[in-house]
Structure formats: C-alpha cells, structure tokens
Design brief:
Helix content is 28%, strand content 30%. The longest helix is centred in the C-terminal third of the chain and has 16 residues.
Length: 319
C-alpha cells in the first residue's frame, strides 16, 4: 500500500471513522484494506493526491510583467518545458527520480485546470556522525511550486520566506521572463489585511503576539484549545488594563488563527491552524494540509489583495 503513503494518518482515521472501519490499533495498510472493502478506493486516491504537493509554507508572488507569450497558458508552458528538454510529454501528471545534483531539477508535474504544479528536487548536504568523526552525506530536498494562469497570474512558492526569491527566479527563468526577475509578494500582510483574512475564513485567534512600547518589549497571549481570544472577555480585560497604564495593544506582530473545514467530497472535518507573521510578512500553516484547504485560503488571500472581500464570509467554514 506504499502508493498511498502521502495521506497523514489522522485523515485516514477520519475517513475510516466515517465509513465504520476499525482503525484503532491497526496498521495503516490494514486500515486502507478495510476502506477498500467499503468501496472507498476513489476517496483514498483523492486524499493521496491532495498531499502530493503540499507544505506548511505558502507565499504568493506576483510578477511585475505579464506572463510571457510562450508561457501564457498551462498548455503553452508545458510545451515550453518539453521543447527546452526540462521534461518529456510522458512526465506530465507523473513523478520520477532524476539523478541528484546541487542544481534544481523538476521531479513531478501536474496539470490541473488553470494551474501547473511542479515538484523540484536538489541535492543538499549535511554532516553525519560516525564514531569519533563525521562524514558528509546528502539527501533529496523537495520544493513545491504552483503556477496560477488565467485572470490572476501568480506563482505560489511553498518554502520559507527566506528562500522564496530563489525558487521564484528559477520558475520565471523556465517561463521565459527577462532578467532581472521582478516580482513581489501578495497581499502585503498588514494588520488590517490579517484581520480581513481571518474574517473571510471565519477564523478564531488562538495566539496573538503584540508589541508593547516599553521595557517589556512584547507580550504573547495564548488561548486554551478552542477559545477565540479575539472576542474573549479575559483577553479584552487584560488588554484594556494595559491600555489603562498608557500602552497601546493594537500593534500585532504575529498571530495564529484556526478554523474548521469540512471537505464536500470525503466529508472529513479538518481543523486548520495558520500563522500570519505581520512583522516578517509571511503566511504559514502549522502542519501540512490538503490541497483543497490551500485553494480556499489562496482564494481568501487573492480577495484580500484585490480588496474584493467586504462582508464576505466563507459559508463552508465553521467557527
């Protein structure tokens, strides 16, 4: 059953519970066999695909110039990759293992509607202890990138913010952009934008880090599980008390938000947490989430960036 090893066990257990398959104390292969007996193979394949390109990180980069003509659509971009020998026609919607080297290589491609998903691989090195000494060993380091074509052209880079420029430049080179590669992150994560994002997702605030202009420097408030401190009476009283001695409490540095999403296909309910770091300008999930959660949060980020979000609440999300 190794072909389904992308699915985190928590999601597999939820699917098993929904279809009355015993999962407690059973190996993953046994749970999958039980689900197949319940005619859930299509849902297993679906969930496995949902995690092939995911990550905890997600940065949306907008190119200053429109996408080049030779990469204006997903089809043209894939033709460009084939013509320039980055991939073959047979590679599309497949994953493979190219020889490792320090340079970036493509190791998976998926075309889905107006998006092209790429998995990149490169060889990285580390020191491995052996006896009294150490040796240098290498490993395959993967990066997922999603190129969104159509009306909203942008590049998703699923790496830490410090590495985003490296992979955006690589993709822009593949697409045929001229140097210097000019791009910027959307949306700019201001306190106002962070609030709009959470409002759209009907998300509660699990943790908030605020700057205090004093010798204290900053304070972090962490809520109990399931508590939204944004409207919690204790949090309001504490911040009012701080404001009462002359210090503002509206300078949010970062916050962790949460929402619950129910997938319409599998009916699995997923609690998702994400961090909005306003000081450093990045967005990050606290753990890997399926692609359909990425898609909805991306939709929210694009709406925040365009300003097209006033009074819109995602009906599929629960408080």
């Amino acid at each position: 059953m190794n072909e389904y090893n992308n699915i985190p066990r928590t999601y597999l257990n939820q699917l098993a519970k929904a279809h009355k398959v015993v999962f407690t104390g059973r190996e993953t292969d046994e749970v999958i066999n039980g689900l197949i007996e319940k005619k859930q193979l299509n849902n297993i394949i679906y969930l496995n695909e949902q995690f092939k390109y995911t990550s905890t990180y997600m940065t949306l980069n907008k190119t200053e110039a429109p996408f080049p003509d030779k990469s204006k659509t997903p089809e043209l971009f894939l033709e460009t990759l084939i013509k320039e020998k980055y991939i073959t026609k047979e590679n599309i919607n497949k994953e493979w293992q190219p020889p490792l080297s320090p340079g970036i290589k493509i190791c998976a491609v998926k075309h889905d509607g107006s998006s092209v998903y790429l998995k990149l691989v490169e060889e990285k090195f580390y020191n491995k202890k052996r006896g009294y000494s150490s040796i240098v060993d290498s490993y395959a380091s993967f990066t997922s990138v999603v190129i969104n074509f159509g009306e909203d052209e942008f590049i998703q880079v699923r790496r830490p913010i410090t590495e985003v420029n490296k992979y955006t430049d690589y993709i822009m080179n593949l697409m045929g952009f001229a140097k210097p590669y000019a791009h910027f992150t959307i949306p700019k994560l201001t306190r106002e934008n962070a609030k709009e994002l959470c409002d759209y997702l009907s998300a509660g605030v699990a943790s908030r880090h605020i700057a205090i202009p004093s010798n204290v420097g900053s304070l972090r408030f962490n809520a109990k599980k399931g508590v939204n401190i944004a409207n919690d009476l204790s949090y309001i009283k504490l911040t009012k008390a701080i404001e009462g001695i002359g210090y503002p409490t509206d300078h949010t540095m970062d916050e962790t938000c949460f929402f619950t999403y129910t997938d319409s296909k599998t009916m699995i309910s997923i609690e998702t947490k994400f961090e909005v770091n306003i000081t450093r300008g990045y967005f990050k999930f606290t753990k890997n989430v399926p692609e359909f959660v990425f898609d909805h949060v991306i939709d929210a980020l694009v709406r925040v960036n365009s300003g097209d979000i006033n009074h819109q609440i995602a009906a599929t999300f629960e408080d």
